[in-house]
Design goal:
This protein is of the alpha/beta class. The chain contains 19 helices and 27 strands. Bound molecules: 5-amino-5-deoxy-1-O-phosphono-D-mannitol.
Length: 616
């Protein structure tokens, strides 16, 4: 988490501070509790930072009016130390000549800090980051140049970092380094070099990009880059590539319509993104499916919403005749699996492709046990795509709202495509049957389009529970994914306490909380779980629960026993029912959006969250 944006240029008319501030604003989804900028100006460091959001901090052009030749900024998601001025980045050394921003966590910072303090260094923050400028100061004091001082400093640090450093006495370059935290470089050859936590941050300025790999350090000069290996200090040859996506997705406009929030706009993009996903390249699908089929053991891992998509994928692959898959949250992966069996495959699911927990899980599986990694990931060129043996790229495109929704919908669609391909390769489904399922997936996009037209109905149901403090989401089988996703969405953007449970499990404890009017939301598609779910609805209803059910448009029996229903327009066919998880979940994502909006909350930037969680 945290966003970093920096630039160094020889173009006289490029407003350095303003361009950095604008770059940081494009990265605010990574954290937004404080922000700061450091510039090198006439042999000294000009530094401004404050708690709060950039738009508020920059009122009256506080950032934009900074003077300097080059520099960088940071938008923070607090890990070590409260979101206050002292802990905001950039941080400086004792001389005030070295400034630095950091994304990641330094695990041994307490020891380093004690040692540095004993040697006389003064710390002004509670952050782990602040050890960096002081370590660099020491190495520069020993006569090392800035690059070699950075290399020596990072070698002393355990943990993850993407850092950018400048020194007031070095007027023509800055240094970046990375390990397990993203950092990319953009370049206008001969003129300007940018560094940022992700590519879209510099996309309005250049399409030429360079990816810095783990354990690498780079010297950035105007329009010129040198990369070195941290371990050996050897220079590295690298590729510059052209980014081929556009920034249209970064506008709150879709089909000529202006939106108040990215989340709303991105929900409306879901149908077209699903259709794109059904068109996943056959070659990618084949090698992904075959790698899974050739494995003796298959695991699936992810975090948050991506984990719920992974759970749906696990169900789909197994239900369509593929192997049994063990799902493990990526943050639990290492502890849950002290040993992994030979010939294992790990399927990793991620929007950003940078989630630290996900990366830790797959590195562990691959490096320690030789597991193959198959990933379903949205961001092209992310760490996960580069580390995987097989990749399916989801077609969600740039997702700006912190609460992920179009990524979830495309991840499930992608995994369902894999499930169908495995079924076909194993002879469980004929080519014609698979074609019918593909059509059903395309129809699910139509179903969502219909719900969008009538989204006012979903909002109306949302208003019934807007004042609730606690809500249960119950479902069985595959639909648990939708229940968990609905519960998480409402929790993270509308700040309502929710819990998702397997409906059958609810009588083993959660039912104790049910009293008159306690809202219980059931995800009730007409699949093989339907009859048993009705039993669970009755258990809640007879204790006074307010029953809200998400049902198929042709539903009768659950409708009869529910107080309110959200109706999902799907066909009454096996194919439509077995591929209806995305429209069912979409209904709940939409309801969460309307509740948050109605409460006057910002669904795009919920408190305490960041879109890309690059700390463990
Ligand atoms: O980038 P990833 O898909 O790996 O991110 C995983 C989770 O951090 C993410 O889904 C998170 O749960 C979102 N806030 C969900 O809306």
């Amino acid at each position: 988490m945290c966003g970093i944006f920096g630039l160094i240029t020889n173009e006289q008319n490029l407003p350095v501070a303003q361009t950095i501030r604008e770059g940081l604003e494009r990265l605010e989804y990574r954290g937004y509790d404080s922000a700061g900028i450091a510039l090198v100006h006439n042999g000294s460091i000009e530094l401004r930072k404050k708690a709060g959001r950039i738009i508020d901090i920059n009122k009256d052009g506080w950032f934009d009016s900074m003077q300097g030749e080059f520099g960088f900024g940071h938008t923070r998601w607090a890990t070590h130390g409260k979101p206050v001025y002292n802990n905001a980045h950039p941080h400086v050394d004792c001389t005030g000549k070295i400034a630095l921003v950091h994304n990641g966590i330094i695990e041994n910072y307490q020891d380093l800090r004690k040692e540095l303090s004993l040697r006389g260094h003064k710390f002004s923050s509670d952050t782990d980051t602040e050890v960096f400028p002081h370590l660099i100061e020491e190495f520069m004091g020993k006569g090392f140049d800035l690059k070699d001082s950075v290399i020596s400093a990072v070698k002393m640090c355990k943990g993850a970092y993407g850092i950018v450093v400048c020194h007031a006495d070095n007027p023509d370059y800055m240094v970046v380094a990375r390990k397990e935290s993203p950092l990319v470089i953009g370049i206008i050859p001969g003129k300007t070099t940018f560094c940022a936590s992700d590519i879209p941050a510099f996309l309005p300025l250049t399409r030429e990009a360079i990816v810095l790999d783990d354990n690498e350090v780079a010297i950035l000069r105007p329009g010129k880059v040198e990369i070195y290996k941290i371990d050996s200090g050897e220079p590295k040859t690298f590729n510059q590539f052209q980014v081929n996506y556009t920034m249209d997705a970064a506008q709150k406009v879709l089909d000529g319509k202006n939106y108040k929030w990215f989340m709303h706009k991105e929900l409306h993009e879901v149908p077209r993104k699903i259709r794109d996903q059904v068109g996943v390249p056959q070659a990618d699908l084949d090698s992904f499916a075959k790698t899974i089929m050739d494995a003796d053991h298959v695991f699936i891992t992810a975090a948050g919403t991506a984990y719920y998509a992974a759970l749906a994928g696990k169900y789909q692959i197994t239900q369509f005749g593929g192997p049994y898959i063990q799902a493990i949250l990526c943050s639990e992966f290492v502890d849950a699996l002290p040993e992994m069996p030979p010939n294992s495959v790990v399927i990793a699911v991620s929007q950003s492709g940078e989630t630290a927990d996900t990366m830790e899980a797959i590195r562990y599986a691959k490096e320690k046990f030789g597991a193959k990694i198959c990933s379903v990931v949205n961001v092209v060129g992310s760490s996960l795509t580069r580390y995987s043996d097989e990749v399916i790229i989801t077609t969600a495109g740039l997702e700006i709202a912190v609460a992920s929704q179009k990524a979830y919908c495309t991840q499930i669609t992608a995994l369902t495509m894999v499930a169908l391909r495995i079924a076909e390769l194993r002879g469980r489904l004929t080519e014609n049957q698979v074609a019918n399922y593909h059509q059903a997936l395309l129809d699910s996009a139509d179903s969502i389009e219909q719900m969008i037209i009538e989204e006012g109905k979903i909002k109306e149901i949302g208003l019934k529970i807007i004042q609730s403090e606690n809500i249960y989401f119950l479902a069985r089988g595959l639909s648990q994914s939708a229940a968990m996703e609905g519960a998480l969405k409402l929790k993270e953007i509308a700040y309502i306490h929710t819990e998702a449970y397997a409906a059958g499990e609810s009588k083993h404890g959660p039912i104790a909380l049910i009293e008159d009017g306690f809202p219980v939301i059931f995800v009730a598609p007409p699949d093989q779980t339907y009859d048993r779910l009705i039993g669970n609805i009755m258990e809640m209803k007879s204790r006074g629960g307010l029953i809200i059910s998400v049902v198929a448009s042709f539903d009768e029996r659950v409708t009869e026993i529910s107080d309110y229903t959200i109706r999902v327009p799907i066909a009454n066919t096996i194919e439509a029912i077995e591929t209806s998880i995305v429209p069912f979940a979409f209904a709940l994502q939409t309801m969460a959006y309307f509740i948050a909006n109605e409460k006057g909350l910002d669904p795009d930037k919920p408190r305490n969250l960041a879109k890309s969680v690059t700390v463990k």
